[in-house]
Description:
Blueprint: H1 3-9, H2 13-16, H3 18-28, E1 33-34, H4 35-42, H5 46-58, E2 62-69, E3 72-79, H6 86-106
Antiparallel strand pairs: 1-3, 2-3
Helix pairs in contact: 1-6
Amino acid sequence: MNALKRLVEDLDPMLHERGRLAIVSSLAAVDSLTFTELRDSLGMSDGNLSVHLQKLEEKGYVILNKQFVAKRPQTTCIPHQRRPQGLIKYLDHLEAIVQQGRGQAGA
């Protein structure tokens, strides 16, 4: 198997899905966002965002803090402290793919 194909196959499938990548990217720049803020900024449906957040929480990319504010439920989405390098590693991996592709194009 060539190096480029191996790099592509090694991409983190958790972050490679565009909805989850958008969530993690949005949270990377802030301490936290409410479910509503995240939903509105990404233009996702409640159900779609909920499913993606659940998967990201299971893999340790986000923490979901559920509480009541003014007697209404509110979910706060927080980037997980143990996974701060997850997005950086993913982006570095993409950069390696681009560099490998450039090397093959020039060959």
